[in-house]
Amino acid sequence: xxxxxxxxxxxxxxxxxxxxxxxxxxxxxxxxxxxxxxxxxxxxxxxxxxxxxxxxxxxxxxxxxxxxxxxxxxxxxxxxxxxxxxxxxxxxxxxxxxxxxxxxxxxxxxxxxxxxxxxxxxxxxxxxxxxxxxxxxxxxxxxxxxxxxxxxxxxxxxxxxxxxxxxxxxxxxxxxxxxxxxxxxxxxxxxxxxxxxxxxxxxxxxxxxxxxxxxxxxxxxxxxxxxxxxxxxxxxxxxxxxxxxxxxxxxxxxxxxxxxxxxxxxxxxxxxxxxxxxxxxxxxxxxxxxxxxxxxxxxxxxxxxxxxxxxxxxxxxxxxxxxxxxxxxxxxxxxxxxxxxxxxxxxxxx
Length: 350
Ligand SMILES: Cc1cc2nc3c(=O)[nH]c(=O)nc-3n(C[C@H](O)[C@H](O)[C@H](O)COP(=O)(O)O)c2cc1C
Hints:
42% helix; alpha/beta; single chain; eight-stranded parallel barrel; TIM Barrel
């Protein structure tokens, strides 16, 4: 089994889920996390930036690597490199909708060619010393059959778990999350199915669990600028972070980026991360426009001090509406369960 019961997983996020990003999530209780998507070809051809993506900090308890590719020989070589690293799972990307990925017949495009996608999984599973999983999108919004077929074939090929992002590739990251398709896939397969799409707070977390019957949930954009989502869900509460908590988190996260990448590059990469932390929390516009000007640690210190001084905004900005009680009689946390506050969710019956 790859995941314990009630696992809440930080998604692979290209351009985001590096070590500082994962550390920030882990400070708030995230156990399961992934690297950014690693291009198999770039890894094999010794691209320095790609090699860096395979790094795992010594304090990371659980880490999955995600790879992207479509050529069995390249995948084979890439997996041999990943075999030298310490990972808990190797996840194969069959869901990326980016045009440059689709043009190469990879990601969500490869998923349309079920036999080729299965051959890739077979190759990875044969070589990998780590367990293998896959991340897919749904193929049809109305008919679960094609996605069930894909999931079955890749499970037969060796995937021990499958994450289903319940949006079609044409919808990229918007549009309705088709919970019912995830539920059908879960019913049809024996392996672990992880539900993904639209989890941004306790309420949407409860909704996806109830509607998909899955207890393993992956969160992506809901964790951007919001590592507190992990503790909010595990502690079954909606309390937003205070300006001081936000300032402390920005300070720790961005200082780590600066020490990982060097001050200059680190602070440029940090801009979108800082803006994510400020988004939707009621901070004044002029604070956001200053982000671009932070070019050394002293300026970062001043910036976070200003955020702390805005504590009259506390609790921060827009409050999420109270989550409806997760529909459940309370019961004890089962052994091996990762969440304390939400194990009493009883999914809707099929
Ligand atoms: C900026 C960004 C980068 C992403 N990078 C990856 C990636 O590297 N690998 C992957 O499988 N999915 C990637 N995704 C998709 C997410 O993992 C997730 O499936 C999707 O955002 C839906 O979940 P959400 O509605 O909770 O955001 C990315 C999404 C975004 C917005």
